[in-house]
TrEMBL record, chain B:
Protein name, UniProt field: sn-glycerol-3-phosphate transport system permease protein UgpA
Pfam families: BPD_transp_1
One example of a Gene Ontology biological process annotation: transmembrane transport
Family: Belongs to the binding-protein-dependent transport system permease family.
Key words, A-Z: Cell inner membrane, Cell membrane, Membrane, Transmembrane, Transmembrane helix, Transport
UniProt cross-references to PANTHER family, sorted A to Z: BLL4140 PROTEIN, SN-GLYCEROL-3-PHOSPHATE TRANSPORT SYSTEM PERMEASE PROTEIN UGPA
Domain ABC transmembrane type-1 residues, every copy: 70-282
Originating species: Sulfitobacter undariae
From TrEMBL, chain C:
A GO molecular function held by the record: ATP binding
SUPFAM superfamilies registered for this protein in UniProt: MOP-like, P-loop containing nucleoside triphosphate hydrolases
NCBIfam families, sorted: PRK11650.1 (NF008653)
GO annotations of cellular component type: ATP-binding cassette (ABC) transporter complex, substrate-binding subunit-containing
Domain ABC transporter: 4-235
PROSITE patterns given in the database record: ABC_TRANSPORTER_1, ABC_TRANSPORTER_2
SMART domains referenced in this protein's UniProt entry, alphabetically: AAA
PANTHER family: MALTODEXTRIN IMPORT ATP-BINDING PROTEIN MSMX, SN-GLYCEROL-3-PHOSPHATE IMPORT ATP-BINDING PROTEIN UGPC
Pfam families: ABC_tran, OB_MalK
GO annotation, biological process: carbohydrate transport; glycerol-3-phosphate transmembrane transport; glycerophosphodiester transmembrane transport
Entry protein name: sn-glycerol 3-phosphate transport system ATP-binding protein
Organism: Sulfitobacter undariae
Amino acid sequence: MDHAVLILGSLFLLVPLLMVLQTTTTPDLDTIKNGPQFVIGNRIDDNFMAAMFKASGFSGENTGMRMLMNSMILGIGFAVGKIVIGMMAAYALVYFRLRFATFAFWLIFTTLLLPLEVRILPSYEIAQKLGLLNTYTGLIVPLIASATATFFFRQYFRSIPEELVEAARIDGAGPVRFFIDILVPLSQTMIAAMFIIMFVYGWNQYLWPTMVTTDEDMYTLVRGIKQLTQDLEGTSIPQYGRANMLALIAILPPVLIVIFFQSWFVKGLTESDK
Amino acid sequence: MKRAGFTTRWLPMLLLLPQLAVIIVFFYWPAAQAVQSSFYLEDPFGFGSTFVGLDNYTYLAQSTEYAKIARFTLVFTILVTFFSLALALLLAVKADKVIRGAKSYRTLLMWVYAVAPPVAGFIGLLMFNQSWGPLTELAKSFGWDFTLGVNATDTAAAMVLVSVWKQVPVNFIFFLSGLQSIPKSVREAALIDCASAIRRFWDVTFPLLAPTGFFLLIINITYALFDTFGIVDTLVKGEPGNNPMTLVYKVYVDGFRGNDLGGSSAQSVVLMVLVLALTVVQFRLVERRIHYT
Amino acid sequence: MAQVTLNNIRKVYPNGNEAVEPLSFSIADGEFVVLVGPSGCGKSTLLRMVAGLEDISEGTLSIGDSNVNHVDPAERDIAMVFQNYALYPHMTVRKNIGYGLKNRKIPAAEIEKKVQEAAKMLNLTEYLERKPSQLSGGQRQRVAMGRAVVRDPALFLFDEPLSNLDAKLRHQMRIEIKALQRRLGVTSIYVTHDQVEAMTMADRIIVLNAGRIEQIGTPAEIYHRPASTFVASFMGAPPMNLIDAQVKDGRVVIDGDTPVADAQGTGAVTMGIRPEDVEIGPTCDMPFTIDIVEELGAHRLLHGKLAGQDFTIHIGKDVAAVAGPIRISINPDAVVLFDAETGVAL
């Protein structure tokens, strides 16, 4: 009985993905006529090549390859930026006696309250003013402007026994030494968990990339989805194979990371509940 | 702060600098600007703007269209939150019970977490394709002539379904880890005190899971309000038309497409207040519930 | 090696809470001093001020000949052993022990030599490549010791280092630490709330209570001549018996007229007597009622009432006793008298 519920649940979540996968193996005409079927075709290579190396826009620059690269840059850049900035700020807040610490704390953690979506237009205008449209900086940095990672690292640092910093001080480690020799190695698991969560979050961003990138060579896979739906609508012979393959490519890297580093990911995610 | 913190003066400032710089430029500045421009009316041709006081707000308050969208957002949020939490809780309780394969189920059920909302919407389009979409067919077999993008109710149903589909995994992960952190001794005590499994769930497990539940409630409301943007945008194929939309989508449509900066900013401010209110509620609830943990 | 002097040292927290009232004492070169007191008495704060982990609000602290009030912990030539060991979890035993030396820019070959020496001294040689999580409690304790020993400091500081160990290990480590300190001859300050540790390890004990020094003395002095009722009841298990008594005509009397000991003055006093300084037998001079006999193998404890007040007697294993009335007498030479109001020894 328990297994029946779980299997049904798994099917509910997985069958749509399998259907997308199926349509990437058959000729487009089959899909246009019949939709997803219980057949595995032989078009997977063709569709993969088309998805990776053919462009659909005017410029011919938004190939799957290009978008994959942009998504990688966004995912990794976002995750790394968030972790580096967050760790530094959390370190300053937890381990130093600062006069304006409380003020900095509130300044930083108020950002947790308002998601980017509610200040999207002014953010866009500022990015425009600073000349950041269609740049990687403009794509990544404004997304970093919240303190989720800082918050996690602060929580984590506070849970590290006090005596460790005392022992290090007696052992002659200054603040920089302590950070590099003790704190960073100790935080490895936390950093890994953060990286996974932030990579997936960055990779999956849609609204901001849609606004800030208009050059096709700056498109990410997820941002490119918009164009895919328009392509499927606008043409008489929609290229389901290629489009669905691109959707799969957009899904695959974050899914693989989440599945492979499951235990870290779950630990990092549920840590926020504490 | 740690008792034995370092006393160096310049280093912490240096460490805080990048974080502060980023949030000041890309958080406080735009947030302040949103508030400011909500009091102005932008000239449609870009020739400056006029101070109009609260006009943008009174317009919103009187707009029947805005009221309609707010109502839809409310219903949408309630449905998405309820179904994704209920389904995830059911699955988590079951996965916690099975001894064999709990981890494999977790792996299977986790996948969709990593799917981006617009990609989820894209898959929704496939499932609800007018001529052969498996779900359209399914609806047809129940006598429901499902027309995504044409009938507003159908589109809304698709939005809810896809949003629930996308959100179940996160809730599942949290519920499962919450269930697994209930001490074995407490379960065993309950087993001795109470024979009925259903009673045990409602009397012991559920209250112990309550803190996780409240946390998730807020997470899910925020998700339904904001993160579903990609799903909505994809399902309506970027053409709002007669389709239902959420408040965030309206901000985007008015501001970015319609160039009504003042109106859109006023809407942003309304949303900000909404989120702040949610946060206050969250803190209140968390405070009251804290003794459970 | 060095002598340590605390001169009017005081600690006030920013919220106005005075954790340590101005106090002074000095520790001789090579001496093992134990700071003992209940939790919150200020003993850890005092130790942390000596270590340099806590600012000194007032007063001067010198280690050796130099004032170290404003010297960084790393430069004070001290080593500290923490209650939870504070081992670096991601470093091997070798790296844990050598980390302080590495920060002092000591050449790698010399570090290796010193680590080997310390490991040999502490029987850790075969564990050098392990991480702390792969060690037992006692081994971790030794690593923490090794980290202190390897630096060859002028002063060892111990902050309740044995409180995380089980009773048997604690006993063993007590002896090991004491032996090691003897061998190295390093001046040591040891903080504990466990009076047994204090008694067995110290050359001198400093009893602290509520941020003040109650008494400084050798274990024997503290035990037999406590300076206050606080010390009398804190040190010793079971603690010293404290009984309300009167001084009349140069005699201490408890109840009725039986004189217990000679004394000067007159009026109400608190009389202290250790449980082992009481004799029982049919010819003794005072009636006593045994409520409970606690059998401890090597000896027995008799809990009961003397003149209506709680009283405990320690007797040898060869003396028989059952619940009920008996007669006892008190060794007059072992009696300590305290002011009934202030609790200070008379």
